[in-house]
Amino acid sequence: MMLDYMDYISRAFEQSTNWNRDNSYANITATTSALIDFSVPSAFEFQVSNASTPFTFNTMRVSTRNVFNGSLTYLYTDADNLEKIVSDSGSIDLQNVTETYRYFQPFYNNHKLAAPTDGKTVGKSLYYGRMFYPNSNLEAMLIKTLDPHKQLKIKWLSTFDDFNILTCYWQRDTGRDSQEVIFSTNDLLCGYRFLHNFIGKPSKMKNSLYNNSSLSLGAELWLGLITLSPGCSTTLRYCTHAPNTGRPLTLTLKWNPIFGNLSSSYSAKTSSNTTVCAKYDFNLYSIDSNLSFGVELWRRGNSAKAMSQYQDVSQTFGKDENLMYHHLVPDLSQEQASPQTRKDLVEKQQLLNDLTTAFSSSLRKIDREKTMIEEFQNNLHHANFTSVWKLSTSLRDANLKVLWEGKFKGFLISAGAEVSKASPLLQSSSSEKLPSYLSKFGVQLQYST
Amino acid sequence: MALFPSFILSDESKERISKIVNMTHTVAHYGWIPFILYLGWAHTANRPNVLNLLSPLPSV
To answer: GO terms for CC (chain A) (predicted)?
Structure first.
């Protein structure tokens, strides 16, 4: 389903405070869940949202399926530049409100992009409250950035029928490592999640090779103090780019030692308009297995506006231009030196020139690779997508999910359906062929100003 | 009526405590959104109309 307006605002808050949501164990398999385990709307839902001031946002949601229900949401944040990041539903980029392939860059690239932390992102907070109708339950959240690498998140679910859950998250992200300590009043659940990125620091030796892949290892540990029920899992993620096309791909391997579940996935952007994902699940104890596939097909609209921006970016460097090693060759014309040192310098220059010639083909190859990856990313970033089709199927569950998300006259529309087989547990005779039926169908409309 | 040591709460004080806890919960439950609205109102320089802050419909 499309991102809610408030999720969109909280992502804008993260962007404003330079918080990288992909560098967290909770989102390590975000690509797979966006492509295969996406949710399909199950009712008719309408949302209207408004940024009443640059700091306050509100949403009214009504939805109906048999019964009428709705919610009112208010959000306040003192983060900077939100009015530049947040745009209304007419001008929003579809790729920013859809759960899709997540790029994960090596962390030093992120650090380069991030603005220097001069204390502007410290002490920023976000207050969120959502009141439901007709049961008047409250969902509340508070996010506070403690310093550029730490933030505290408190979530509270309050009802009047003895169901109150308070969950606290303390998160620390240094780029290379990310840690999270969680405590919830539900069953006094305690959790710890960490993620580590194995990437060599850019050094003298590594500067020459364009390394755009990253390997991350993460794990989570849970313990409910009342029931003493444990939980844990560990995941390995590898993100890289196809060397000849510059298209990104992600591989993950997740293992849950308690339930013996092993899950591997492969996702790739096969072109700038399509993404494919395959997931294979295997259980070591029950020898059950499952194979799932997911596809995304994006459609572009009139690209005149987007292309002009994109060309500005791509014109700044040519494809065959050598981007590196100009600085290594000293400029001799500026030097005022004795004939002896001058001779040395000439020799040095000769040596450097020889080296550059000797390695020029590989240097050019690295440059080409880098340019290709950046061009592909710019192309996606500035693309003016108007709609996306998402399809996912799972062989063992024998289901098919179809979702269409798009922009139409300033509205964001998300419509989907799920077809699945009747559960075999409900059938007395297993020899009978199970009928397929439409288990879910819904439309969601969003409008924001 | 038996006399308890002071650290064992009488039924009356138990009741009072649970009443206070319940009241705090109710106040926090219904006060959270007005609190958010107040923060938004106080942080905005031109002090917008409360109705503007409340309504999710686009203000003209």
So the answer is: ERMES complex; SAM complex
Which own/partner pairs from A374-377 qualify as long-range (CB within 8 Å, at least 24 positions apart)? A374/A246, A375/A246, A375/A314, A376/A245, A376/A246, A376/A247, A376/A248, A376/A272, A377/A103
In this structure, are strands A44-50 and A274-283 parallel, antiparallel, or unpaired? unpaired
Q: pLDDT tens for residues A167-182?
A: 999 999 988 899 999 9
Annotated domain spans of chain A:
5-305+383-448
Is the complex ipTM more than 0.90? no
pTM: 0.82
Name the 3-class secondary structure at A14.
helix
Element (DSSP H or E) covering residue A253: strand A248-256
Among A50, A75, A164, the residue with its CB nearest the CB of B36 is A75
Q: What are the residues whose beta carbons fall under 8 Å from the beta carbon of A192, sequence distance 6 or more?
A: A179, A180, A181, A182, A220, A221
Q: Is B24's Cβ below 8 Å from some Cβ in A? A: no
Query: Which CATH entry fits the domain spanning A5-305+383-448: 3.30.1490.20, 2.40.160.10, 3.90.650.10, 3.30.230.80?
Result: 2.40.160.10
Residues A76, B58: C-beta atoms closer than 8 Å: no
A3's tokens = 């991102």
Residue B24: what are its φ and ψ, rounded to 5°? -60, -45
Distance, in angstroms, between B17 CA and closest chain A CA?
A: 16
The answer, yes or no, to whether the previous bond of A134 is cis (omega within 30 of 0) is yes
Best of A47, A48, A58, A164 to substitute, by most chain B Cβ atoms within 10 angstroms, is A58
